[in-house]
Please model this.
Amino acid sequence: MSNVLPNSSQKAVWHEYRARFVLVGSIVASLVALVALVALVPSYLALRVDEGSLVPATSTPSAAQDGIAMAHLKVLVTTLSPLAASSSPVDAMTAALANKPAGIVITHLTYTAGSPASLVLSGTASDTQTLNAYQMALRANSRFTAASVPIDQLAGAGNGQFTLTVSGTY
Model:
């Protein structure tokens, strides 16, 4: 079978096809790049948010903010306590937070079941005396068998940040 178009017309048609192929290929490549960019945006934003949370707070929260946080926590505990298989871990968390003095801000709470169970409270303290008073208050509570803070944090090496481990049978 032979082509009836002259060579000059064939070249013009092939030039048109090549131009269309390059155009479609560049559009597809641009769309793939756009999809990749959109897929990376949440990761980028997550990293930017985490960088902001790593900077220690320079001011201590006010008593009103503490009150609002405690009210929010009480609502959460009241709402979630029926869902718990045993209310004793929730009671232990509530008791640990109820003993918190004004200069202590709890930022993270971890419960580990076992015998004895442990409750790890992380946060910031305005000074080492407040942290020591909080540790002594938790030790005096009969619900807990031990309350420990690493000695370097009691000495003030952590810039007010602390990790307090409370043990007990709950």
